[in-house]
Design goal:
Helix content is about 15%, strand content about 45%. The chain has one domain (about 1-105): Pnp Oxidase, Chain A (Roll). The protein is mostly beta strands. The longest helix has 9 residues, at about 10-20. The protein has helices spanning about 10-20, 30-40, and strands spanning about 1-5, 20-25, 50-55, 55-60, 65-75, 80-90, 100, 105. It contains 2 helices and 8 strands; from the N terminus they run E-H-E-H-E-E-E-E-E-E. Strand 5 (about 65-75) and strand 6 form a beta hairpin. The strands form 3 sheets. Strands 1-6-5-2 form a 4-stranded antiparallel beta sheet, covered by helices on one side.
Length: about 120
């Protein structure tokens, strides 16, 4: 399962409620420009992103992980709705490192020794 939070006023939330499905794209470290575009509150932001439909769900090429999910439950979370979803399909690019945004900066994932 996965859990995510979507803004109550987002067009994505209304689309997810209608379809009861989600395509989750976990961006890779080379996709920081895509992350910046996706973070905008513009309803037409995806017109600036290279993407396609896979199993009727949006998929961004080059992602580290792509998940096909079915929404299980929704919970109020202030100005967001918290969604739990069952993962139905996973596609992982094991050579990709995740895109990490921390303290207003994109960061690289460092390997942890001893594991």
């Amino acid at each position: 399962m996965v859990m995510l939070a979507l803004a109550n006023d987002s067009s994505l939330l209304s689309k997810a409620r209608t379809s009861r499905r989600l395509g989750v794209n976990v961006l890779a470290d080379h996709q920081t420009d895509t992350a910046i575009v996706c973070a905008r509150r513009d309803d037409d932001k995806m017109s600036d992103v290279d993407w396609y439909f896979h199993q009727d769900l949006p998929r961004i090429p080059g992602c580290g992980v792509w998940l096909s999910c079915e929404i299980i439950q929704e919970f109020p979370g202030g100005d967001h709705t918290i969604i739990t979803a069952e993962v139905l399909e996973v596609d992982i690019d094991s050579s990709a490192s995740p895109c990490i945004y921390f303290k207003r900066t994109f960061r690289a994932l460092s390997p942890v020794s001893g594991f």
